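Figure 3 (text version): structure tokens given as input.
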């Protein structure tokens, strides 16, 4: 990789995260929105990430040879599909293709045996909604007050074989 000025790294390394690696990501995740605005604490988030890693549900992405700069937690068996419970990219790594690479990894694993892939997103997170729309996710539901009072989560879904869509 030539540096952070380059939009996409030449090689993205995706690795299943062990508990220690997953837990270590909590400090930077808790410091960025939407998690910061929701009051997430690094210690509690770290415990959850470590537990999910113990179940084999956490992957990280990094430019080849670098420390992890993005993380995804994905579970199986949610409404005939998989569910992305968390996707986070360090702000200085945003726009380098790491989030898209992680979603593509989860899609390949999910669509090998399931019909749908779901994710929820804060209705006010315009950047995340654009990202998921570009990847072919469509809005299928609204969940007011799910995560916090006064905030609405949108449930988005992508079907096996989908390439483009609109998150309304």
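Below: residues designed for each position.
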């Amino acid at each position: 990789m030539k540096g952070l000025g380059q939009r996409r790294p030449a090689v993205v390394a995706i690795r299943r995260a062990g508990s220690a690696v997953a837990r270590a990501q909590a400090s930077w995740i808790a410091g960025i929105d939407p998690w910061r605005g929701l009051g997430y604490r690094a210690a509690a988030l770290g415990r959850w990430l470590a537990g999910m890693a113990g179940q084999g549900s956490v992957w990280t992405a990094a430019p080849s040879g670098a420390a992890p700069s993005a993380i995804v937690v994905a579970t199986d068996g949610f409404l005939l599909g998989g569910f992305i419970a968390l996707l986070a990219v360090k702000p200085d790594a945003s726009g380098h293709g790491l989030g898209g690479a992680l979603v593509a990894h989860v899609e390949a694993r999910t669509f090998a045996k399931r019909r749908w892939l779901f994710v929820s997103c804060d209705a006010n997170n315009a950047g995340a909604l654009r990202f998921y729309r570009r990847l072919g996710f469509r809005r299928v539901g609204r969940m007011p007050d799910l995560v916090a009072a006064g905030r609405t989560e949108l449930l988005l879904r992508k079907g096996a074989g989908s390439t483009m869509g609109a998150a309304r």
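The first helix runs from residue 19 to 24.
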